[in-house]
Protein backbone atom coordinates (compact mmCIF):
# COMPACT_ATOMS: atom_id res chain seq x y z
CA UNK A 1 0.00 0.00 0.00
CA UNK A 2 1.05 3.51 -0.67
CA UNK A 3 1.76 5.92 2.16
CA UNK A 4 0.51 8.83 0.07
CA UNK A 5 -3.02 10.00 0.69
CA UNK A 6 -5.43 9.62 -2.16
CA UNK A 7 -6.64 12.65 -4.06
CA UNK A 8 -9.66 14.45 -2.63
CA UNK A 9 -12.89 13.26 -4.17
CA UNK A 10 -11.25 10.11 -5.52
CA UNK A 11 -9.75 11.98 -8.51
CA UNK A 12 -6.29 11.83 -9.93
CA UNK A 13 -3.36 12.38 -7.63
CA UNK A 14 -1.66 14.84 -9.97
CA UNK A 15 -1.58 18.26 -8.38
CA UNK A 16 0.09 20.04 -11.31
CA UNK A 17 -0.68 18.34 -14.65
CA UNK A 18 0.58 21.37 -16.57
CA UNK A 19 3.96 21.09 -14.88
CA UNK A 20 4.23 17.42 -15.78
CA UNK A 21 3.34 18.17 -19.40
CA UNK A 22 5.98 20.91 -19.52
CA UNK A 23 8.59 18.46 -18.22
CA UNK A 24 7.51 15.85 -20.78
CA UNK A 25 7.62 18.49 -23.55
CA UNK A 26 11.16 19.54 -22.59
CA UNK A 27 12.30 15.91 -22.55
CA UNK A 28 10.58 15.35 -25.91
CA UNK A 29 12.41 18.34 -27.37
CA UNK A 30 15.72 16.90 -26.16
CA UNK A 31 14.88 13.55 -27.78
CA UNK A 32 13.79 15.17 -31.03
CA UNK A 33 17.03 17.17 -31.31
CA UNK A 34 19.74 15.04 -29.70
CA UNK A 35 18.78 11.79 -31.44
CA UNK A 36 19.32 13.01 -35.02
CA UNK A 37 22.34 15.15 -34.07
CA UNK A 38 24.07 12.20 -32.42
CA UNK A 39 23.24 9.93 -35.33
CA UNK A 40 24.56 12.44 -37.88
CA UNK A 41 27.76 12.82 -35.88
CA UNK A 42 28.09 9.02 -35.83
CA UNK A 43 27.61 8.78 -39.59
CA UNK A 44 30.25 11.47 -40.06
CA UNK A 45 32.57 10.29 -37.25
CA UNK A 46 35.66 9.96 -39.45
CA UNK A 47 36.00 13.75 -39.55
CA UNK A 48 35.22 14.38 -35.86
CA UNK A 49 36.91 13.47 -32.63
CA UNK A 50 35.53 10.33 -31.06
CA UNK A 51 34.34 7.09 -32.53
CA UNK A 52 31.11 6.37 -34.35
CA UNK A 53 30.05 3.96 -31.61
CA UNK A 54 30.08 6.74 -29.04
CA UNK A 55 27.90 8.96 -31.21
CA UNK A 56 25.48 6.15 -32.06
CA UNK A 57 25.19 5.34 -28.34
CA UNK A 58 24.37 8.96 -27.60
CA UNK A 59 21.79 9.00 -30.42
CA UNK A 60 20.17 5.78 -29.20
CA UNK A 61 20.13 6.95 -25.60
CA UNK A 62 18.57 10.25 -26.56
CA UNK A 63 16.07 8.94 -29.10
CA UNK A 64 14.88 5.94 -27.07
CA UNK A 65 15.91 6.52 -23.47
CA UNK A 66 14.58 10.04 -23.07
CA UNK A 67 11.05 9.21 -24.33
CA UNK A 68 10.98 6.23 -21.97
CA UNK A 69 12.07 8.51 -19.12
CA UNK A 70 9.36 11.02 -20.06
CA UNK A 71 6.75 8.25 -20.16
CA UNK A 72 7.87 7.02 -16.74
CA UNK A 73 7.68 10.52 -15.25
CA UNK A 74 4.21 11.07 -16.71
CA UNK A 75 3.03 7.65 -15.55
CA UNK A 76 4.20 8.21 -11.99
CA UNK A 77 2.49 11.62 -12.03
CA UNK A 78 -0.73 9.98 -13.21
CA UNK A 79 -0.92 11.71 -16.61
CA UNK A 80 -1.77 8.92 -19.05
CA UNK A 81 -2.13 11.20 -22.08
CA UNK A 82 1.37 12.67 -21.64
CA UNK A 83 2.76 9.15 -21.15
CA UNK A 84 1.16 7.95 -24.39
CA UNK A 85 2.54 10.94 -26.31
CA UNK A 86 5.98 10.24 -24.87
CA UNK A 87 5.75 6.61 -25.98
CA UNK A 88 4.67 7.76 -29.44
CA UNK A 89 8.10 9.40 -29.70
CA UNK A 90 9.60 5.92 -29.96
CA UNK A 91 8.69 6.02 -33.67
CA UNK A 92 10.95 9.06 -34.15
CA UNK A 93 14.24 7.07 -34.55
CA UNK A 94 12.76 5.15 -37.49
CA UNK A 95 11.78 8.44 -39.12
CA UNK A 96 15.07 10.27 -38.73
CA UNK A 97 17.31 7.30 -39.54
CA UNK A 98 15.31 6.67 -42.73
CA UNK A 99 15.40 10.35 -43.63
CA UNK A 100 19.14 10.60 -43.05
CA UNK A 101 19.89 7.60 -45.24
CA UNK A 102 17.46 8.55 -48.01
CA UNK A 103 18.87 12.08 -48.33
CA UNK A 104 22.39 13.32 -49.05
CA UNK A 105 22.89 13.90 -45.30
CA UNK A 106 23.77 10.22 -44.85
CA UNK A 107 26.89 10.62 -46.90
From TrEMBL:
Segments passing through the bilayer: 20-43, 55-76, 82-102
Protein name: Uncharacterized protein
Record key words, sorted: Membrane, Transmembrane, Transmembrane helix
Keyword field contains Membrane: yes
Amino acid sequence: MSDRPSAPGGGRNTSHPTGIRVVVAVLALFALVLGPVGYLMGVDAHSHAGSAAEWFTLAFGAAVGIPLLAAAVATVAGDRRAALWALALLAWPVVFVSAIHLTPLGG
